[in-house]
Amino acid sequence: MTAVDLGLPSLGGLDLVPTDDAPQKAKDFKSDQEVRWCPGCGDYVVLNAMQSFLPSLGLKRENIVFISGIGCSSRFPYYMNTYGMHSIHGRAPAIATGLAVTRPDLSVWVVTGDGDALSIGGNHLIHALRRNVNLKILLFNNRIYGLTKGQYSPTSETGKLTKSTPMGSLDHPFNPLSLAIGAEATFVARTLDNDRAQLTDILTAAAQHRGSALVEIYQNCPIFNDGAFDVLKDTGEKEQRLIPLEDGKPIRFGPEGEFGVVRSAWGGLEVAKVAEAGEERLVVHDATIEDPSYAFALSRLSTQDLSHTVTGIYRNVNRPTYDDQARAQVAAASETKPANLQALLNGNDTWTVG
After folding, report:
1. CA-CA-CA-CA torsion sign (99, 101, 106, 111)
2. pLDDT tens for each residue of 278-309
3. What CA–CA distances, in Å, run from 329 to 97, 160, 210, 323?
4. Measuring CA to CA, which residue among 268, 280, 274, 272 is closest to residue 256?
5. pLDDT-above-90 percentage for the chain
6. Cβ pair 155, 173 in contact under 8 A
7. Which GO terms describe its molecular function (predicted)?
8. Where would a tag sit more exposed on the chain, N or C end, judged by fewer CB atoms within 10 A?
9. Per-residue confidence at 352, pLDDT binned at 50, 70, 90?
10. In whole angstroms, how far apart are CA 124 and each of 110, 180, 188, 196, 243?
11. Helix (H) and strand (E) counts for the chain?
């Protein structure tokens, strides 16, 4: 059962109540709390982009909720003039799932970091995506534990020197998007904290998507991992490394568009020079392909050393959501068999003890 079934209007794929008040502005979504991140932190850019983007949804602030776990990014709910909850380490997807199931009138967002989401919260993240709960998950990835002062995280590159790995990390890091696509998340995207236009476009698409949406945001930590993504931002470097995705267009990049993505001999994807491979071999991007194999192959083009990094929307497909189905199931059960709490507590078998 969706909010439409309950008599609530639909808005851009979101079963939410649009505001009847005067148009809102970015300042309306700013709380009275002092924003306290380190100077130069990429979180500021994401916060500003979110506050500027939300008015375009035309939703009442009381119909928007931000749930966070533990970490620097998890301060987010304090700075949003909406409902929100700073929850416990790694459990934001679980709490948000309960909220999404019981309140179809809410736009539910999860804000998390690479440590919070992929270490202690890894199991919760995987199952929220697998179930296709109607959540929008923003994964701030700075490849380090910032709040606890610079230990290596599940996305830190192999060999990373940190306080907890003084001789270099031995771990093979997660590729968060490969993980999400492996769980068959229905919306998967990646962007950078400094690309305001792409970030806004992706946030808009995620908000309009019905189902689980994971947006990975490469975000700089100026204190414990400063410059981690500089090669993706510096003129002369970024053109050689960033592979932007645009639906319906051949995937190509480079200062003159001289590189492109083609099918490899073994069936995956690889980077090639367009002049050598030929225009006709370039892959035309389609985020709506049902089979996750294509999106997964795209995710494998991105490398630890950032020599290639694919940005944009990898996957955007439709599948029934867990929360819609759960509400429909409850409604069907109520119609066929009225609720009897005492019978449920007693169960089919009872025992007398003593």
Report:
1. positive
2. 999 999 999 999 999 999 999 999 999 999 99
3. 16, 48, 19, 10
4. 274
5. 86
6. yes
7. magnesium ion binding; oxidoreductase activity, acting on the aldehyde or oxo group of donors, iron-sulfur protein as acceptor; thiamine pyrophosphate binding
8. C
9. confident
10. 12, 12, 17, 29, 30
11. 12, 11
345 CB-side CA count, 13 A: 3
CATH architecture of the domain formed by 26-228+320-346: 3-Layer(aba) Sandwich (3.40)
Residues 131 and 268: their CA atoms lie apart, in Å, by: 27
Query: Residue 85 has which token pair?
Result: 């909850």
CB distance 193 to 157 below 8 Å: no
CB atoms within 10 A of CB 217: 26
Split at pLDDT 50, 70, 90, the class of 344 is confident
Tokens for 52, please give them.
């500027």
Contact 82, 67 (CB under 8 A): no
Which residue matches tokens 């500021």? 44
CA-closest candidate to residue 87, choices 164, 98, 347: 98
Task: Output the pLDDT for position 127.
Answer: 97
* pLDDT band with cut points at 50, 70 and 90 for residue 9: very low
What pLDDT score does 171 carry?
94
SS3 of 296-314: HHHHCCCCCCCCCEEEEEE
Q: What is the pLDDT of residue 8?
A: 39
Residue that the structure tokens 């993505």 belong to: 261
3-state SS, residue 244: strand
